[in-house]
Amino acid sequence: xxxxxxxxxxxxxxxxxxxxxxxxxxxxxxxxxxxxxxxxxxxxxxxxxxxxxxxxxxxxxxxxxxxxxxxxxxxxxxxxxxxxxxxxxxxxxxxxxxxxxxxxxxxxxxxxxxxxxxxxxxxxxxxxxxxxxxxxxxxxxxxxxxxxxxxxxxxxxxxxxxxxxxxxxxxxxxxxxxxxxxxxxxxxxxxxxxxxxxxxxxxxxxxxxxxxxxxxxxxxxxxxxxxxxxxxxxxxxxxxxxxxxxxxxxxxxxxxxxxxxxxxxxxxxxxxxxx
Length: 275
Known about the structure:
Helices cover 41% and strands 21% of the residues. The protein has helices at residues 2-32, 44-57, 59-62, 76-83, 94-104, 144-156, 206-211, 216-219, 245-254, 257-267; strands at 38-42, 66-70, 88-93, 108-116, 120-122, 137-141, 161-162, 175-177, 183-187, 201-204, 222-223, 232-238, 272-273. Strands 2-1-3-12-4-13 form a 6-stranded mixed sheet, with helices on both faces. It is an alpha/beta fold. The longest helix is centred in the N-terminal third of the chain and has 31 residues, at 2-32.
């Protein structure tokens, strides 16, 4: 009985090891396969719209088979790129990517900067930021980088003062002066436009503003400056996939004169080419 048990255990162990190696080999083969379509996860607006323009008008001539998967949150695109469910993503900024990699242990890298979506402060109750009343509630994105951007926007326009050097890691705890005694409601970035009926003002990411039919250049009380702005939106892949010929083709198309014109014509200043 003991000998039989030992032999059986050994056979099972060898079988499991063989299966494990086969699985690893399959993952490696899948990761290195560049024969299929390039699958890119993207926020619907403007990222997927830009990608679909490339797909419909430019990709075939360039020999690129492009598949666009729309995703409405800021987590799934990176986790899907990390686990290989998609080949690339297009939705985020460099500071957000760096923070995500640090916190999640992922290995996503930038390929090319494509555009800037200026962050803006919007309100259904006042026409000027200076008109916000004492004790007004302002909604801000609750993820680290975008909350920091939101507070930097408010500080740049004199509504609050922040500790020196906090950058995009700023939180309400870093506010040193708050003359209007503003209160902050931290929400998922995608929900900030919908909060405008419940708060006095909201800081909204450019892509979500466009989805909500807000026109940043016209409707924002204050708007991020494009000058020296580190928050360009980028095409990203898992580390090691940068040399995928399909990725290189897409990067070239996304920074082409045709895409620049598409962005300028369609978004009228709400999205700015960064190339």
